Fold these 2 entries.
Entry 1:
Amino acid sequence: MKRIAIFASGSGSNAENIIMHFNRDEVAKVVIILSENRDAFVLERARKLNVPSHLFTMDELNDGGVLMVLKAYDVDFIVLAGFLKLFPKSIIDIYHQKIVNIHPALLPKFGGKGMYGSRVHNAVIESREKESGITIHFVNQNYDDGDIIFQAKCKVLENDTPEILAQRIHALEYEYYPEIIVKLIEAL
Ligand code: GAR
């Protein structure tokens, strides 16, 4: 059974969905949730779901402290789920092609620094796009830039608000992110 670490900065609804998936699926289990944000609701979700969590500083992310935590928990695979900071080269090199991120739009459009959550949906609506979707990709040292693994699309409707579009995108994320993680882990 492979061991997954999830990094999240905010609400953590994807983190919860992935934890629940791997409570049923014996391919892997989520062994730790990590966050740089002490107010992140994902920490509350982790407590309720009995998954250990670790709050870290940006110094710890970059100077090897977080890597030590990943080693201590014997982590095989890393999932970013609403994690908003850049990952350091030291961790990317060790977990080569074993770190994935999900982005709430069809990359390479609407990605990059500062493009997260409702800002992405705002930009999609303001550009009058007819469709949006999700992108699951490997993580490299730039924002939203690694090799694309999977995309799924949905419509953007005339009267969509960022909140309504976010709901449609979240539904796609819940449907596909665990499934793609399973495929990647089975191929390790
Ligand atoms: C998700 O929609 C995810 O795609 C997005 O943040 C949201 C987190 O929601 N990630 C990014 O925008 C990364 N650039 P959650 O905390 O409820 O899972």
Entry 2:
Amino acid sequence: MLGDHFLSLTDCTGDDIMDLLAVARYLKKRSRSGVIEHALAGKTLAMVFEKPSLRTRVSFEVGMTGLGGRAMYISKDEVGLGTREPVQDVARVLSRYVDGIMIRTFAHQTVVDLARFGSVPVINGLSDESHPCQAIADLLTMQEHFPSLAGLRIVFIGDANNVSRSLARACQLVGANFVLACPENYAFSEADIAEFGDDWGSVVQQIHDPLAAVTGADVLYSDVWTSMGQEAEREERLNAFSGYQINASLMTHAATGAKIMHCLPAHRDEEITDEAFESEASIVFDQAENRMHAQRAVLRLLMADDREDVLTAAVQ
Ligand code: CP
Ligand code: NVA
């Protein structure tokens, strides 16, 4: 069973991921059948954003409303985390008002400190280190497009960043193979590699040649080359990643029936061509929709009083 918070997939087991996916599929099916949920009636989620967002903000707010609760958006300027007020005080004050906190921030330590000093569940809505909600939505989407996650070859073309780090860990936990196709200076760190343990070099790998990396790939996954907070490096990154674009030519090396994924927002004709983005192989909008279904599972398993019941119903 998922723990008290959802901060990083390094805290999760394969069973936690499978539980989340089962509840997400169950809630998605019920939502499509018009079932009105009340599991979070009377509960409030505070959503603290220190970076911009479309998907995370809207999917959490709609997801929370769809479970009978409400969500409150708090901007960087209002809360002034660590400047107007220390994180440990914000954590304790918010915990007196709300039933859960979702945060999008820069330093991962801020997410950890909110959880440490607060007394309500904390959800990581993206930090510089990880994006666990995205990875759950990604696996959910892959489950819908492939017979099984086990044994898939997922190739992320880009840098070792929040999205690729979480996706690599998610793949490792469910028995999928993950390859990071990246330039030499944008690879996983020694600390990342240590986290992957014995699976490093086999289940989780990095390959610098993009053609070799995508050969036989079931999924070609892309993200922006310059993440939020790295804007000063944009020119340098545009040069470094110029051979790492998802395009029709790269796709010819992938497996038959391979899919294209992107966490969005996408920069067309940088990390992915417009042609590839709009192609039949692209499942990026299924993926974006699944952010909401995946997060409803996270909210339900962290914040509802009937965690065990929903899990039992979902796995039946
Ligand atoms: N993929 C994702 O997290 O999108 P937003 O930045 O729009 O929330
Ligand atoms: N790596 C990107 C993901 C955006 C959803 C960023 O951090 O900006």
